[in-house]
Amino acid sequence: MSDTPSTTPYTPPAGDSNPGSNQGAAPVNVQKPARFSVFGSIQTIATYAFLLATLFTLFTPDNLFSDQMIKRIFQAWQANPTEVAQMSTSAASASQQSLPIGIVAGHWKNDSGSVCADGITEEQVNLTIATLVQQGLVAQGFKVDLLEEFDSRLSQYKGILLLSIHNDSCDYINDQATGFKVAAAIHSAYPEKATRLTACLTDRYARDTGLSFHAGSITNDMTYYHAFDEINTETTAAIIETGFLNLDKQILTQHPDVVAQGIIDGILCYVHNESVSSTPVPTP
Length: 284
Fold this sequence. Notes:
The protein is α/β, with parallel strands linked by helices. It is built from eight helices and five strands, in the order αααβαβββααβαα. It has a five-stranded mixed beta sheet with strand order 2-1-3-5-4, covered by helices on one side.
C-alpha cells in the first residue's frame, strides 16, 4: 500500500446530500422566521374595523339577517383597502334606500271624494296620479308602497317618507281657486325634515306644472291629516292637493303624467338633499 494520498474526490453515499452527515440520519429542515409586514397588519386592522362599523351602522331589527346585510359582511371580509373605502361611502345611502316610500291615493277604497258633474271623481284622479308616481319612483330604484286611504299598513308605517295625494273641489269657487297646496303635520317629530319635504315638493311641483302655490286655502284637514298620527314618528310625511278639479281640471285629468312628474321630482329633491332654488309666493 502506497503512502501517497489518494486524489479521488469523496463521493457521499446515495441519499446523503450532506457530506458531513451520518448515513441514514433524517434531513434537518431549517425554517426562516416569518417576516413582519406593517402594511399587511394595517390592512387586516382596517378590514376588521370596517366590519364592526358596518355591523353597528346596519344593525336594525328589520335588516339584521337580511341578504343585503350578509352580502355586505362577506364583502368586508374579502375587501382590500380600495374596496373598503368605496363601500363605506355608500353604506348610508344603501341603508336609507332599504326603506320604502309610501304613497297614499287619497280616498281610494274609502269614498269617492269630490264628484264632478261629468262623473269624474277625486278618487279616480288621485289614484291615477299616485300610480304614475309609484311607477316613476320604482324606475328610479326605490321600493314604493301604493296605499289606500285607511290602509292597515299605515299603522306604525316606517319609510323614507309618506305622501298622501288629494285634489280640491270640482265646484267653481272663484277665479282664484286654482293651484296646489302642500302641508306637513302641525306637530312633526322632526320639523326640519317636514319643512324640507314640503319645500322640495312645492318648488319642483310649481316648476314642472306651472301651477301656483295656493297656501291660503290649506286647512286643518291637511295639517291634522289622520295618517300623520298613525305612522311611525321616524317617517317624514306630507299631504299634497295637486289642484282644483274645476279650473285645473285639464292638467289634472288630461296630463296626469306632468302632475306625477312634479311630485316625483319633489320627492327626489328631498331624498337626494337637492337645493331648492326659490321660495314660492303664497297665493292670497
